[in-house]
Amino acid sequence: MDSVPALERRDVRFEQTVDVVVVGLGVAGASATIAARQTGGDVLAVERSSGPGGTSANSGGLIYLGGGTALQEACGFGDSPENMAAFLQAALGPGVGDGRLQAYCDGSPEHFDWLVSIGVPFRAQFCDEPNRESTDDAGLVFSGGEDTFPFDEIARPAPRAHKPQCLDSAGGFLMERLGVAVSESGARTASDVRADALVVDGGEVVGVQVTGDDGTRAIRARGGVILATGGFIHNEAMVAEHCPRAHLPDPVWRIGTPNDDGRGIRMGLGAGAVATRLDAFECALPLGPPHRLARGILVNRHGERFINEDAYTGRIGLDALLDQDGFVYMITDDVIHERNMVGLHVGYAAATPAELAVDIGVPPDALARTVAEYNEAAGRGEDPVFHKRAPFLQPIGVPPASGIGAVDLRVDHGAIYATFTLGGLATDCDGAALDAIGSVVPGLYAVGRTAASLAAHYYVSGISLGDGSFFGRRAGSHAAKQAQRSKT
Questions:
Q1: How far is CA 231 from CA 18, 128, 235, 252, 266, in A?
Q2: Number of Cβ atoms within 10 Å of the Cβ of 272
Q3: Phi-psi region of 214 (alpha: psi -120 to 50; beta: other; left: phi over 0)
Q4: φ, ψ for residue 425 (rounded to 5)?
Q5: Residue 283: predicted pLDDT
Q6: What pLDDT, on a 0 to 100 scale, did the predictor assign at position 487?
Q7: Which of 5, 33, 252, 464 has the fewest CB atoms inside 10 Å of its own CB, making it the most exposed?
Q8: What is the reported pTM?
Q9: What pLDDT is recorded for position 304?
Q10: Omega before 395 cis (within 30°)?
Q11: Contact assessment for residue 451 and residue 309, using Cβ atoms and an 8 Å cutoff
């Protein structure tokens, strides 16, 4: 991967000086801007598009927070930072080992209060349809399989996806509220401005060169430059080099804007920062809503189950794509299957599992055995192999069902395999970028998807807006304090 070389201070003439420059105004950049202003910093935020929003505005708006937030308590759910950390350590790994996770869990309740304080409202109502935002304005939902095996045996289940008070998808509403908070903070902003390169002086990042309608100029930053430019799912070369299997699904389902091209990551590399986990990506395969569709079973090309079907859809999707080579069918019947939001339909039907197996190209004996064993255990209310929960255990293809059917979930056959990148620049608990030996690159911060996500391998819905806003806020405050120290 080619870096964007930094410019040397001696070769640049600064036309403007501020305390903090924030590059990008998605949730992470907006949070950094607000926090830097709250800390007393003189802030300039530049945005490549016509206004704040980015990928955050196109999201469902779920913000992963926990540890005992006011919203969790109001909805009757107990949680603690330790409980939250135990779940995330298991659910996001392997590879979640740095102090950022603990800082995030410890600071999560207070961060929720901060979001409320800057004008983001939440309604204290739990929605029992998991894995996506509520269709009404309910504010709390399970979004990462917290109440499913094996995680319900690792940590006490607690819903942690906090959705701003908005009907259905709330990403646009969230960014509208943050945009108002940015404006009211007194920060200066500039839209349709692209960051070209960082400016360094003796290994320290001291500014950034940008280009807009009024030409190219260099801006000095006393306290630091915060890169919040998104990930790289729309950079074909970077994806092909680092996580090529993210290219396998239909490109229409790559989650991001055209500006998720990795430029911020490449700029950071050019200034001495190091990237990590660039091969990590999310791949969600939604099976609903309604979640009742999880009463079916998922089988691979061998006609065998491979996961508990009530699991988080991001875990199902990544396993389906990587471990099953995108060859997956849902086995169901006309009693279990129903109209659903994602348009899943039964494409094959037969009288018996063996006959259905011929139609979908899996071994007849294996599928017949899989269904028989599942039905026998489900009839007892058990799933000894994959531990799907009792409410979703229902024998398939037996009366009153008229037969057995299959939904084609193979990659590139119409199913949704939604992907985006998780890797980025290595950072510390304050969002400061790190070099190859783990030392801070002075004056440089990376947040949001420009930084390596807390999701080291697997994902939970809401962690992007969660860690983006959390570490964006910390980076903004830290950079503003650095600027104050430089003036003394």
A1: 26, 31, 9, 16, 11
A2: 21
A3: alpha
A4: -70, 140
A5: 96
A6: 77
A7: 252
A8: 0.97
A9: 98
A10: no
A11: no
Distance of CA 263 to CAs 26, 230, 438, 446, Å? 15, 8, 22, 12
Cis peptide before 364 (omega within 30 of 0): no
Which token pair is 116? 């409320």
pLDDT of residue 250: 86
Q: Give the DSSP H or E segment for 477.
A: helix 463-487
The pLDDT value given to residue 98: 73
The kind and range of the H/E element at 168 are none
| Whole-number pLDDT of residue 298 | 98
- Identify the H or E element spanning 436: none
Q: Phi and psi of 66, rounded to 5°?
A: -170, -150
Secondary structure of residue 31 in the 3-state scheme: helix
CB contact at 8 A, 137 and 158: no
The Cα 363–Cα 185 span in angstroms is: 63
Distances (CA, A) of 270 to 22, 62, 199, 267: 18, 33, 10, 5
95-133 pLDDT, tens digit per residue, is: 887 799 999 999 999 999 999 999 999 999 999 999 999
Residue 418: closest CA among 314, 287, 300: 314
* CA-based nearest residue to 445, from 427, 465, 420: 427
- pLDDT value of residue 49: 93
Kindly write down the DSSP assignment for every residue of 90-146, as one continuous string: HHH-SS--SHHHHHHHHHHHHHHHHHHHTT---EEEEE-STTS--SSSEEEE--S-T
The pLDDT of residue 371 is 98
Which domains, and CATH codes, for the chain?
286-408 (3.90.700.10)
CA distance 229 to 192: 13
Q: Which pLDDT score, from 0 to 100, does residue 94 have? A: 85
Residues with pLDDT less than 50, the chain: none
Positive or negative, the Cα torsion across 240, 243, 249, 254? negative
Token pair for 420: 């985006």
Rounded alpha-carbon distances, angstroms, from residue 129 to 123, 290, 381, 440? 16, 7, 22, 42
Residue 349 bridge partners (DSSP): 405
CA distance 411 to 438: 39
Count the Cβ atoms, other than its own, within 10 Å of residue 206: 24
